[in-house]
Amino acid sequence: MNTSSARQLTLFDIKSDNFNWKVERFSANALCEESARQALEDKYMGITEITDIFNRQSVSYQLSKRDCLHRWLKYKEGFSANLVETLFEEMEIGKGERVLDPFLGSGTTALVAQMQGINSIGFDIMPTTAVALFAKGNILRYNVQELHRLADFISGLNRPASYKKRVKSIAITHHAYPDQTERDIPFYTEQIAHSSFSDEAKGLARLCLLNSLERLSYTSKDGQYLRWAVNSKRVMEANACRIAAGREPLKAKLDKGDLPSVNQVLTGEINKAIDDIVYLQASMHNLSESTEMVFKQGSALVELPLLRKDTISGVVTSPPYCNRYDYTRIYALELAFLGMGEDEIRRTRQDLLSCTVENRTKLDFLHDYYNSMGRMVDFNRVKRVIKENAALSEVVSALKIRNDNGDINNKGILKMVKGYFEELAFVYYELFRVCKKGAKVAFVNDNVRYAGEVIPVDFISTELAAQFGFTPLKVYSLKQQKGNSSQQMAKFGRVPLRKSITLWEK
User: Fold this and answer.
1) Whole-number Å distance between alpha carbons of 273 and 252
2) Domain that holds residue 116
3) What is the pTM of this model?
4) Same-domain status, 39 and 74
């Protein structure tokens, strides 16, 4: 390891005692082999640093929602602009260089780069990213007077009683809105689209409406799914059927009360965005519009192999976590609003990095894809590294034992975890190829636990990266550790889990 590089990294206030963050037992009740995971724990705990400043707010949407610009899209899985700024500073990324985020999400990495005169490239499968990036990337192009006229135009809209269209829905979003809102959403969408305002202004209004959907609905994003309010038609109808069948009604705890109107919420969103734009244009007046911000809607597994090698100066990203969260369900309102139907959403779910129990292996696809590019040597190398990663093999074997023991409630977890690391291995390999010598790569991720088996995502990822040639520099870990599910704690006890930023150098 390059110790001189490691000493130079002083991202956060460091706590010297790592004892409480070291996993002592990876397998509950010592049922499964854990020596390979313990070896990784011993190997990388020496570069693990615990911090007070690096916290759940900086690596999540909690901080970004208070930031200008970044609050324009409520993206719970995003990280804060402050974290990206800090990482850019420590990576010594300068103006004119190019950074990469292969899992761009709400676009924070690209937008912070733009504000600092740094070029960027990013990928994401979700269409919400394209909408957010278009609106957020036009900061210098907005005409504030036009936006005020747009706000007045929206405020004055009144849907006629003869308008019968309803918002597009899929099975899991049916009855998500009050009847009036179901008709107001497409009406406002059409009126804005057919207006004479500029494309930039229309794009901002579209993002503001997209960002309003949850507040306008009887739903709330909650972990792996949408939570429904007790006063929603969906819950009331379900309970009526359950009671008629002699069953207990659903005990929905969410009550959103009387929902606001589209006019009220959308006008408020537009006016808040205008305030942000006025502030940002005044503070960014010296920023050159020549800074490149390239976005491609697609999978990192497909797009990364197309980049030229040795062209990237730094990477800041947070992939989907290995936590069973299905983003196509969590963001179902937004995807339906953007026109995605059931079949397209199912395809998107499979194209996402394997993080749900429904994901199927992508190895056959990757074999054919690399073969089509004449890069089977690379494909075989990645497969060999995956096979040689002892801790990953141990995790896969342990989950099989747990499944045979009846400890796993969904056998899809086995293929999900295996597929997750297989796909990330291809991402890590391609990042090493496209990064310049001396480039640093920062990944935000969570460790997880399934059926009593701790999976050290941070250290397994770091070991895979090292196998491809990266030098591990630091693993920054939150002082506040992650808990376990109540079901796991009841059966296997509690094991605190790290949430980390892993930092590697080419």
Assistant:
1) 34
2) 64-90+100-213+262-303+320-353
3) 0.91
4) no
